[in-house]
Write a structure and sequence with these properties.
Layout: E1 2-9, H1 13-42, H2 50-60, H3 74-95, E2 115-119, E3 126-127, E4 133-135, E5 139-141, E6 143-144, E7 155-160, E8 166-173, E9 186-191, E10 195-199, E11 204-206, H4 210-213, H5 215-226, H6 233-267, E12 270-274, H7 278-281, H8 287-293, H9 295-309, E13 312-316, E14 342-344, E15 350-353, H10 354-365, E16 378-379
Parallel strand pairs: 9-12, 12-13
Antiparallel strand pairs: 1-6, 1-8, 2-7, 3-4, 4-5, 7-8, 9-10, 10-11, 14-15, 15-16
Length: about 400
């Protein structure tokens, strides 16, 4: 499988200017090509192919209006056309029902907080003996190497994030030597807000709540930003302060997810989670807590690490009644309100913890060999029967008044 390894870049002043020029050229080529295809669609003409767009790009470089496109590597311009093809492909596949529905490609803005360019192998980039990243028409950029690459990378993507930091993302091919030795047993995971994860063996992992802990600092930074005059340099500095504060929260959350997912993958041969409706939960009053937990990012890490290290990852349906079934006897006694955290089964008399019981049921629904004893149930008196989470789907029209690639057909 292909993996991405990210490392921090530290370009100097001239290199930052060269990267800004490359970001702008890639953005202009993307917008010009999108405009050509949109004009062809509005005129009822056939879909403009990638080969026609590539020829139009070559011709545009020879015009006075677009001669500055030759100041950057031609590879990143061609890759920008490939990105447009990918955006269209995702849009059409969504209409066919082959993937989640996506909106049509939209124009990029120079005010976008994230900028990226991609270099392939034929661009001539390389890692120098001194450990720097040599990029064509940019120079040798210092890199903070936190680990070694497992194999020779095929492409590198240079990204500038909203906090003004630069990163190099390498695509490498993983080897079969990384498969971990098999272990016995599996685990079911019930994700939540009170506890980030509850395991079927009874362990409960507290939720770090990184965003909640940083709210005061974020509030002060946002208030300082709101006082600045729009378009001023002080507002740009204040915006960068807010972006860096959010970046620290996101980095801490990502580090927590990486450490926990790696630990679970190493300890268990099989892992089962529930397919949560995160988008629906994010539209409720719990939206901030749902986003702070980052369940989707965590389960995605579990999925790719299970594939990488030879583990089994199972995602059960979101409509499984994991909180309604007794993990000891299997009797379903109906839904329960959220404030009920412990209850007694009316059939067998077991005292059940809501989260641990759900984790055990998730493991059982996935076919894992998990016994009810892992739920820490205890027998008790039998009482009377009780009742009782490419492009955005919403497009934002952007007015583009700039002329660029001309349709040569």
């Amino acid at each position: 499988m292909q993996l991405r390894y990210g490392f921090r870049l530290y370009p100097n002043g001239s290199q930052r200017s060269a990267l800004a020029r490359a970001f702008g050229c890639a953005r202009v080529v993307f917008n010009d090509a999108l405009r050509v295809r949109e004009n062809a669609r509005a005129a009822g003409l056939p879909f403009v192919t990638s080969a026609e767009l590539s020829r139009a790009l070559t011709a545009a470089k020879k015009t006075p209006e677009r001669a500055w496109l030759a100041e950057v590597s031609s590879v990143i311009l061609q890759q920008s056309l490939r990105d447009l093809d990918t955006a269209y492909r995702n849009f059409f596949d969504g209409l066919k029902g082959q993937r989640p529905e996506m909106g049509p490609p939209r124009f990029k803005s120079k005010r976008d907080t994230r900028q990226a360019i991609r270099f392939t192998a034929n661009a001539g980039w390389k890692i120098t003996p001194g450990g720097k990243l040599r990029l064509p028409k940019v120079g040798d950029v210092p890199v903070k190497w936190s680990r070694t690459l497992p194999s020779t990378p095929t492409t590198v993507t240079v990204v500038k994030d909203p906090a003004g930091r630069y990163f190099a993302s390498f695509v490498v091919q993983s080897s079969s030597e990384e498969v971990l030795p098999p272990v016995t047993g599996g685990v079911g995971i019930d994700l939540g807000l009170g506890h980030f994860a509850v395991l079927s063996d009874g362990r409960k992992i507290d939720s770090p709540r990184f965003l909640r802990r940083a709210e005061k600092r974020l509030k002060r930074a946002q208030q300082n930003l709101s006082r600045k005059t729009r378009g001023s340099n002080n507002r740009d500095k204040a915006r960068m302060t807010v972006a860096r504060a959010h970046a620290r929260v996101a980095d801490a959350r990502r580090e927590f997810h990486h450490q926990l997912s790696t630990q679970l993958i190493r300890e268990n041969q099989a892992i089962a989670v529930e397919d949560l409706a995160v988008k629906a939960l994010a539209r409720t009053r719990l939206a901030k807590s749902v986003h702070d937990a980052g369940w989707s990012q965590f389960t995605a890490m579990l999925a790719y690490k299970a594939t990488r290290y030879g583990r089994t990852f199972v995602r059960i349906g979101r409509f499984e009644p994991t909180s309604q079934v007794c993990s000891a006897c299997g009797v379903k006694d109906g839904p329960k309100p959220l404030h009920v955290r412990r209850w007694t089964c009316g059939a067998c008399g077991s005292v059940l913890d809501r989260d641990i019981n759900a984790a055990v049921n998730i493991a059982k629904a996935a076919g894992l060999a998990v016994t009810a004893c892992g739920a820490r149930v205890r027998p008790g008196p039998v009482p009377a029967q009780r009742e009782e989470t490419g492009t955005h789907p919403r497009t934002h029209p952007t007015r583009v008044l700039q002329t660029g690639i001309v349709d040569l057909r």
